[in-house]
Predict the structure.
Amino acid sequence: MLLPGRILTDRIEELDAANAKRLGKTLDEVRSTSVKTIPAGRLGKVEEFAAAGAFLCSEPASYITGTMLRVDGGAAKSL
């Protein structure tokens, strides 16, 4: 299983814009608040998430089974 964190997608853009409007804040303010919760200090890239999936589908990962791979920049506080 691939467990994404906040990956910068069109959906995240929509959600952040809606939150900014609802809270009366700028998109940058809402995004900054969100990013502060991510130890990596930024949103993930689609390419990073895709690379994790491609690896799990590759021959070098053929012996990996039953795992949950977090692609979240360290956002999950526990295992």
The helical segments are 10-23, 27-35, 46-56.
